[in-house]
Amino acid sequence: MLVLGDTLIEAPMPSRSRYFESQSFRNITRRYFSKGEKWLSAPKPVLTSDSYLWDGTVPYLAEIEPLFDAANILRCGKDIFYNVSNSGNRAGLEWLESMFGDKYNFHIMSVCADHIGTTIQLLRPGVVLINGGRIDASDLPDQLQSWDVITFNEPEDIGYAFDWGRASVWISMNVLSIDEKTVIVEKNQKRLAELLSRRGFNVELARFRHGRTVGGGFHCCSLDVRRQGGLESYF
Fold first, then answer.
1. Is the pTM of this model over 0.90?
2. Does 79 qualify as catalytic in the annotation?
3. Residue 112 catalytic?
4. Is 69 among the catalytic positions?
5. Which one of the listed residues 69, 79, 112, 219 is annotated catalytic?
6. How far is CA 71 from CA 152, 154, 219, 220, in A?
7. What sign does the CA torsion over 73, 79, 84, 85 have?
8. I need a labelling partner for 39 at 20 to 30 A (CA). Which of 2, 98, 117, 164 fits?
9. What is the pLDDT along the chain (235 residues), one digit of tens a residue?
10. Which of 76, 112, 115, 219 is catalytic?
11. Which of 76, 112, 219, 220 is the catalytic position?
């Protein structure tokens, strides 16, 4: 699910196993709609074999239909950063621009293989957290080049259940900013907590033992459908 302003969007996810996932939230979305919120679904993808391509080293998506996960997107006021990867194609960006281009500025990037939340996190206006194991400041979109960059290099592996982890050790970077000063961090990530504390953030430690098992951190597992304040431009 993706929220843009007062609109709740069911994303056209490229994973066949997640095709009906948004229906799990139908009772919630129906309540939003009845209270005057906008609710829509992106075009439902067909997801034939032609949607998936392979160049011999990495998988990627064809451009025959709009495909994206909400986690491919960084929202920053009036600016939307869209990561083209194996979980979101350019056709997905084109659909979003056609629907919301009159209100938001869309920027294309390709900084990681799938979801953006373990590579870049916007902590507050003017401050961005990046995964030092994947990118450096020069890899950020032009609009973020002037921001204060906090580089994180030492994630703690909290382990996982079953045979394989659905997220890497970098799920530790999937923090949740509550406001411009407060950030929720997984309690085992002491080095990250100390790093953010030194940069002036109030860090709240919370337990999330199965982040690697379920494939998501605090940011992944939350959706801010209620906000205070207006739509602003930070650039």
1. yes
2. no
3. no
4. yes
5. 69
6. 20, 23, 9, 7
7. negative
8. 117
9. 999 998 999 999 999 999 999 999 999 999 999 998 899 999 999 999 999 998 888 889 999 999 999 999 999 999 999 999 999 999 999 999 999 999 999 999 999 999 999 999 999 999 999 999 999 999 999 999 999 999 999 999 999 999 999 999 999 999 999 999 999 999 999 999 999 999 999 999 999 999 999 999 999 999 988 888 889 999 9
10. 115
11. 220
